[in-house]
Specification:
globular; 11 helices; about 400 residues; Aminopeptidase; Nonspecific Lipid-transfer Protein, Chain A; 3 domains; 7-stranded mixed beta sheet; alpha+beta
């Protein structure tokens, strides 16, 4: 607990959940019902919730969900999923968020998870705390009426349409295989699957109940809008293999009585090149999804793999906590040994930049061009750029 003026920041108790729900409702414009709050209490506990109080009035909250995440190379790394972050509109500009985050992140640092993750409602808030965008998504609209597939695309042989009961038995195992090979993806807790298949009316946003198609190596869960602009809205598109991806897209395009298909996907998905007209998929939105903060530079960098063997020195500035320093990174057979050093740096950056580089979606060269990463020379930049690169963009598994 810490107190400054009339504001006290402390760990929540089990008696504080109604206050947590009140703050969240005012911050995000949606009242939490009993089921929502019960789910959150399964995903975390009051000891993982930090609150700010003005006397007896709750004025701020931040919590985290213990989780893990796949990093480049396939390792499963312990992480803290920061969520439900808000400050009451009555108490803006008083440093409450920084005080809560300081308390929370010192606790996270002591717990030892190498990474902290979040999803950001606003893009300008979290860089000051060492977070950087780690994954990106494109919102894509495809007019299925004009879609034709390239003749070399594999034929549809293994896709089935299933009811929710069968889907609930099949999808978790498919997701698990996809998650283990996809950087940025987290295991999905059982309560999230329960909520997904419950498919409550209040999460449908005016669309139909969920439909499901499955392939041995993938699945699609989608809704339909049958009034106005008829469309399919994809909720989850999970493909473990390229063959599953191609087959399921062909089935989606074959759905009658709708004009368009809407989906969020990684920027490097191959959809345009499955089609004879690669211009047909229209990108209607582009946004970040998962944000990350490297809590422990040595542990995090040693957990992932790298594209090339190399040796370089990184100087990392952490203006929020004490994760920064100068680090020797020696990569052999794709794995890194990371130690603190006094040697001159080959590249320097703030922690939010390193956190963006970590999952491989973003490149060091782009940050250098933005004057947010300094390198000793072009060769050093090229080495760092190539080492952190990955074959595929990272993908967030589920939002929290």
């Amino acid at each position: 607990m810490n107190t400054e003026g009339t504001i006290t920041v402390r760990t929540a108790t089990d008696d504080d959940w109604d206050a947590v729900a009140l703050l969240d409702a005012h911050a995000f414009g949606e009242h939490q019902n009993a089921e929502d709050l019960a789910e959150t209490q399964i995903l975390t506990s009051s000891r993982h919730v930090v609150m700010a109080w003005d006397g007896s009035t709750p004025v701020g909250v931040a919590m985290h969900f213990p989780m893990s995440v796949t990093v480049p190379g396939g390792a499963q790394v312990e992480a803290s999923g920061v969520s439900w972050v808000s400050v009451a509109p009555t108490h803006r500009r008083r440093g409450i968020l920084r005080r809560m985050f300081t308390e929370q992140h010192r606790n996270l640092d002591a717990a030892g998870a190498p990474l902290s993750l979040l999803t950001a409602s606003e893009a300008t808030i979290y860089r000051r705390f060492g977070y950087g965008p780690a994954t990106e998504e494109h919102r894509v609209v495809l007019d299925r009426r004009f879609a034709q597939f390239h003749p070399d695309v594999p034929a549809v042989t293994d896709v089935r349409l299933v009811e929710s009961t069968e889907a609930s038995a099949l999808l978790p195992e498919i997701y698990h295989r996809w998650q283990r090979k996809t950087a940025g993806a987290q295991p999905k807790p059982p309560i999230r699957w329960e909520r997904f298949f419950a498919d409550r009316e209040n999460v449908r946003e005016g669309l139909t109940a969920l439909f499901f198609m499955v392939h041995p190596d993938g699945y699609v869960a989608y809704r339909r809008n049958m009034s106005g602009d008829t469309k399919v809205v994809v909720q989850e598109f999970i493909a473990v293999t390229d063959d599953a991806y191609a087959q399921m897209w062909q089935v989606l395009v074959g759905i009658d009585l709708v004009d368009t298909i809407e989906v969020s996907q990684a920027p490097d998905e191959p959809l345009p090149f499955l089609l004879t007209n690669n211009r047909l998929p229209k990108i209607t939105g582009h946004h970040d999804a998962l944000w990350s903060r490297v809590m422990n530079v040595e542990a995090a960098l040693e957990a992932r793999t790298y594209a090339v063997d190399a040796q370089f020195v990184l100087d990392v500035e952490d203006p929020f906590l004490e994760a920064g320093g100068t680090f020797d990174v020696t990569i052999s057979a794709g794995s890194a040994t990371v130690t603190r050093t006094d040697a001159p740096a080959d590249a320097s950056m703030k922690l939010d930049v390193l956190s963006s580089l970590y999952f491989g979606t973003h490149r060091a060269s782009r940050f250098a061009a933005s004057n947010r990463l300094w390198s000793r020379d072009s060769d050093a930049l090229h080495t760092v750029d190539l080492a952190f690169s990955t074959d595929r963009a990272s993908v967030m598994g589920w939002g929290f």
